[in-house]
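sorry for the late reply, my laptop died twice this morning and i had to redo everyting from scratch. anyway the thing you sent over, i finally got around to it. pasting the sequence first so we're on the same page, its 424 residues, then the predicted structure underneath. double check i copied it right bc i was rushing
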Amino acid sequence: QARSALMVVEGSEPDGEAQVSDDEDPEDLEVFQPTNQWQELRPGQAVPAGSHVRLDLQTGKREAKLQDSPGEEAGGRQGMVNTESQTFTAQELKKALKHFKEAAVVPTDEEKEAAEALRAQFRPLEELKRDMEALGVMMETDFQIMSRLLQQFNSSAASLEERVSALQEMEYLVHQVDTAQDFVTIGGLQLVIGTLNSSVPVLQEHAALVLGSALSSNPVVQVESVEGGALQKLLLLLATEQPLPVKKKALFAMASLLRHFPFAQQRFLKLGGLQVLEALFLSPGGASLRVRAVTLLYDMIVEKELILQHGLDPVPDASYEARLQQYSQVSVLPQLAERGWCGLVPELLASPEHDVREKALRALLAMMPPCQELYRGDRALAAALSLLQEQYQGLAESERSFGDENGYFGELLGLVESMLGKLR
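ok and here's the structure:
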């Protein structure tokens, strides 16, 4: 037991191997001669296969001796030079080690053919490098692509299809914030704002789409757009006779311009934006525009409430107080009540589409402060909400039966019940 407490490794060297580093020549190797007694191993000594080896943890010394069992010793010599001998001489061990080190594996014909077939599937590295260099010369940056597209759009020889194609490619690029800011630098923003005045509807439509994509979550582009007159041009598109696709894209651009930009929201209200949206809402055949207009107003209302309740950014910047002041001056709700929107939005509840109803319910709840008294006396609104409550109770119960406790219809039911609760 005393010995086992000191020894943590006690075993035998594997067959056909000895402890030799790769940079040692077997001819120069000093070979340990084991006996039946434990002997200390000196650094660099090779141990014959089949020897018993142990390590003393207290001293760090390694010791070795012959195997106790003759059967084990004979089994450990398989593959060595003289398997009939009870022991191996140093010369026999050196020859065996040298043979192992010099031996080489000769591939078969099948292996050679497989290797050639594999190499044939790949191109030489130098050839790939040349191709990559050639591609690098021809590769364009986003900045260069946009510059080329602007030239294509402005070319007097460009066809309508080519100009539309240029706008479509621009729209794809300006989704990236940095690329959209480069777009401003090279004059692309002013180009698309000017194109909103085009007499060709398809150019107006795609220009508005490019503008809306560049504006999305990009304060730099928002400021430049307001200064470049984009707000007035978008309102003009919405207020005049235009094809439906043009007005849809103009509303998209307007929403992108106003989002998180209280200065633009103030300008929108001063320029008669609510009147323009009201005309869109009342226009025949513009059901999709109604929903978009109400959604835009709802976003403005909720954005202001959230900002005034919770503040702007976690770490206020130098413009923090100025922006809060601007939000406090955006008086959307009072003007909505003055313009009669309290009576317009409930019309959307008659839609057969659940998404439209959802947007109407959320807008009605947001407009409740100035509209509550009117809604309490509106029997038609109460009847419509009661019908929706009955319908969504059944749909929500069906959702729960499938294990969906917080499903979409349950959420709509909650909105309806919130409205009914505020009318009591």
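The chain is about 65% helix and 5% strand.
thats about all i looked at so far, will dig more tmrw
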